[in-house]
Structure formats: structure tokens, C-alpha cells
Amino acid sequence: MTIAIVGGGIAGLCFALNLHRRGIECRVFERVALVKELGVGITLLPHAMREFKALGIDAELEAQGIENLESCFYNRFGQLIYKEPRGRYAGYELPEVGIHRGRLHLTLYNAAVARLGADRIILDHRCTGVTQDADGVDVHFETANGARTMRADAVIACDGVNSAIRKQLYPQDEVAFAGINTWRGVTRHKPILTGRSYIRVGSIHTGKMVIYPIVHDVDGQGNQLINWMAEIQGDNLIKNDWNEAGKIEDFYHIYKDWTFDWLDVAAMIRNSEMVLEYPMVDKDPLDQWTFGRITLAGDAAHPMYPRGSNGSAQGAIDARTLADCLAKESSVPEALKAYEAARLGPTSKVVLTNRSNPPDFINIKVEELVGDKPFDDLDRYITQAELQKMSDDYKKIAGFALPTPG
Ligand SMILES: Cc1cc2nc3c(=O)[nH]c(=O)nc-3n(C[C@H](O)[C@H](O)[C@H](O)COP(=O)(O)OP(=O)(O)OC[C@H]3O[C@@H](n4cnc5c(N)ncnc54)[C@H](O)[C@@H]3O)c2cc1C
Q1: Contact 73, 80 (CB under 8 A)
Q2: Cβ of 313 below 6 Å from ligand 1
Q3: Fewest CB atoms within 10 Å of the CB: 40, 71, 216, 231?
Q4: Residue whose CA lies nearest to ligand 1 atom number 20
């Protein structure tokens, strides 16, 4: 059996590593010609780390990132609403890790090349479509040297939110934009709060900022590389273009007065090394991912708002589940159907919850109750137990509520 994996991102590479462990042959086809350390930060929750541990790369990832100690929620006046311990500090066997996205990707890529062989991770192959018959699938590519077609027993589309294969299966497929734009950057800064704190400030209605460290002592002077993401929702916002560099003047006005005694947010934005712009987009959950010998996984199957640090975990769980099904079921179409049956329901719930009740709903709720002003006594509006329940409810939907086994 040969499996063609289209897309060498988080899901595609996790899938290749999972298949390799089960002795199933595969090839990854990635459109970029060169793998580089791109992007900014990403947070790996304990259930993502569980998947990486099963692939034997958890220690390497932890060593390159920062283990989070706590998650903190503040209003836009810098007042603490709620905080809770995270990862091992909350009793999980595995940590929650903030890491540079490029380092995560390179770690997966290097592991795949080392274990499967460089000839199995094929770059410069942009998939343009698939055609299947009773015995297999032809996968069509554009490469620098022209068009090429490969034959496989199954094709797994791990080609991300703008998946070409999903578009072929669902020609009307489009991303859904509900008016939330984001800008991301990284700033060298002295450690904020504990130096291991994942911080959400404000709400998408009046301006939200997510802040967490991804590299310790980046300059030999004790500064950390701080990842930040600004988010704002508006009725008339034009969708940001994810291919463009971001411009500070497009969003700085929202944060210019955010100078708290524990952080000068405005200065952190001004001192950013780079700014990227993204639209916050997802897609409505599908009823079907598997069509004979073709299926979808990762963001190609269930792109979700990045509001719960959860997309990579879901892609990695897809990868393990699909590899298990292929190892167990007698026929490829049955394996792909069994995978869909196991994963479509749970991931659809996460997609919808990330729209309606993501973790930062804690900040939105407090802003609704208190109004857009500082509070004197938060307990008059909502208790810490109620806030904890909101956080715990999200963990259940996303699949990392305690006691998640490590
Ligand atoms: C702003 C932002 C912040 C996020 N933060 C977090 C976070 O903190 N924690 C978390 O867990 N998740 C986070 N996510 C989500 C996470 O990044 C995704 O869920 C994850 O990257 C999905 O992996 P994937 O492999 O499915 O897709 P991708 O990582 O997008 O990989 C797709 C791959 O397919 C390749 N490709 C595309 N088209 C083709 C083609 N036609 N032919 C061949 N190759 C192709 C691409 O080049 C790419 O390498 C965030 C997402 C965004 C946008």
C-alpha cells in the first residue's frame, strides 16, 4: 500500500511519521521548494504534546520552546479577571509549550526526512487535482520541471485551509470571514509576569491581545522573544490579506493607551521585529471528508478560528487516528470511512465552539457584565468558580480536560 500525502505541514508530517511507525509506505508532496523557519508563535496544548510524545519528538520540542506555567485573562484596563495553572502545573503529565512555529515545523520535517528518507518528502510539488478509479488514485502536480502525475492507493489532503483537493470535492468551498482581523508579531522584551505566562487581554469587540513567550534569553541579556497577536472585530472590516506584511498603523490606535503597570502593550507593538496580517477565518463543518480513496485531514478538513490554541492538536490526532485505521481495516476505502466516523464529529464541535465559546469568551463575558470600564469588585458580577467552569468547558470540547493521560 502506498499513501500519497498532499501537504507537508503539521498534519501531513505527523501523518507520515505515524504511518512510518506502522510500517505503511507513504510519500509527502509539498508545494514549497525549500522548507524554511517561517511564522511566529504557536502554543502546543497537552493533547498536542501527547501526540508528539507518541512520535518521540516531545522532548525536542519542549527544549526549543517555553513551558507555560499559567494562563491569565485581563480586561483592556490591565485588571486581572482570572488565571489558572497550565500543563504540568495544572496536573497534566505533559506540558503546555509556546514555541516558534518554524521550529515546530522544522523538527517535524527533519524527523520525517531522517526516518522515512529524503526521497519520501518531496518538495516543489503543488497538487492541482486528483482522479480515482476502483484500484487507485492519480495525483496531479505542477513542479518547476512541469506537470507530473503519481499513482497511489489513497490520497490524504493535508494541504491546509486553502486545500486544492477540498476545492475539487466542494467547488463552492470558501473560507468564512465574520469580520475579525488579526495582526501578529514578535518583540524582544524582558520576561512578562512569570516569564511563562500565556496572557489574553481585552475582547475582540474593543480590542484583544494575546501575548506569550516563545524563546528564552534570545539575546544573551535575559530578554525573551514574545509572540503577540492583536484581534479586532468590526462590521465593516475588509478582510486582511495573509500574503501581505502587516502595517502597525492599521491597528495601533486601538492599543496606544494600553500601558499597564505590568506591561506597556503599545511599546511592545512598536518594538516588534516584524508584523504579519491574517484574517480570522474558518469554514463551516462538512458532512463528508472521505470519497472512496480520498480524504481530508488537518486544516483541509476542519479549519478553525485560532482562538483555543488547538488546530495543531486536532491535526495531529487526525494523523494518528487515520494511521491506526489504515493499519487495522482490510480495505483503504473502509479505513478512510472509519477515520471520518471517528474524527468528523469531534472536530466539528471544536470548529463551532471556537466561533461561539472560545476560551477568550471569559473576557467577552466580563465586558458584557461590567461594561467597557474598569471594575471594583469582579465577584459582584461573576465568581471565579463560574470563570473556571467556562475554561474547563472548553477543555472538554477540545479534548484536553483532565484527567487526560499523558
Ligand atoms: C494565526 C494562527 C495562529 C494559530 N495558533 C495556533 C496555536 O497557538 N496552537 C495550535 O495548535 N494551532 C494554532 N493554529 C492552527 C494551526 O496552525 C493549524 O491548525 C495547523 O497548521 C494545521 O496544520 P495542517 O498541516 O493541516 O495545515 P498547514 O500547517 O497549513 O500545512 C499545509 C501544508 O500544505 C502545503 N500545501 C498547500 N497547498 C498545497 C498543494 N496544492 N499541494 C501541495 N502542498 C500544498 C502548504 O505549503 C503547507 O505546508 C493557528 C493558526 C493561525 C492561522
Answers
A1: yes
A2: yes
A3: 216
A4: 312
Same domain, 93 and 196: yes
Looking at the fold, whether 288 and 303 belong to one and the same domain comes out as yes
Q: Are residues 166 and 266 in the same domain?
A: no
Could you tell me the three cell numbers for 66? Answer: 517555553
Q: How far is the CA of 12 from the centre of ligand 1 (A)?
A: 10
b/e 188-225 (16+ beta carbons within 10 angstroms → b)? bbebbbeebbbbbbbbbeebbbbbbbbbeebeeeebbb
Q: Looking at the domain assignment, is residue 216 inside a domain?
A: yes
Residue 189 is part of which domain span? 65-98+176-282+360-400
Pocket test for ligand 1, best of 30, 49, 243, 302 (most atoms within 8 A of CB): 30
For residue 405, count CB atoms less than 10 angstroms from its CB and return exposed for 0-12, middle for 13-18, buried for 19 or more: exposed
Whether the pTM exceeds 0.70: the reply is yes
Same domain flag for 187 and 223: yes
- Specify whether 211 is located in the same domain as 290: no
Distance 41 CA to ligand 1 centre (A): 13
Which residue type is seen at 339? Y
Domain-embedded: residue 326: yes
Total domains in the fold of the chain: 2
**What pLDDT is recorded for position 37?**
73
Grid cell at residue 270: 512598536
Is the CB of residue 9 below 6 angstroms from any atom belonging to ligand 1?
yes
3-state secondary structure of 287: coil
Could you tell me the distance, in angstroms and rounded to a whole number, from the CA of residue 8 to the centre of ligand 1? 9
Burial track 252-261 (b if 16+ CB lie within 10 A, e otherwise): eebbeebeee
CATH code, domain carrying 230: 3.30.9.30
| Of 207-221, 230-244, 311-325, 371-385, minimum mean pLDDT range | 230-244
Do 297 and 254 have their domain in common? Answer: no
The tens digit of pLDDT for each residue in 361-381 reads 999 999 999 999 999 999 999
Distance 301 CA to ligand 1 centre (A): 11
**Whether residue 166 has its Cβ less than 6 Å from ligand 1:** no
Residues 293 and 206 in one domain: no
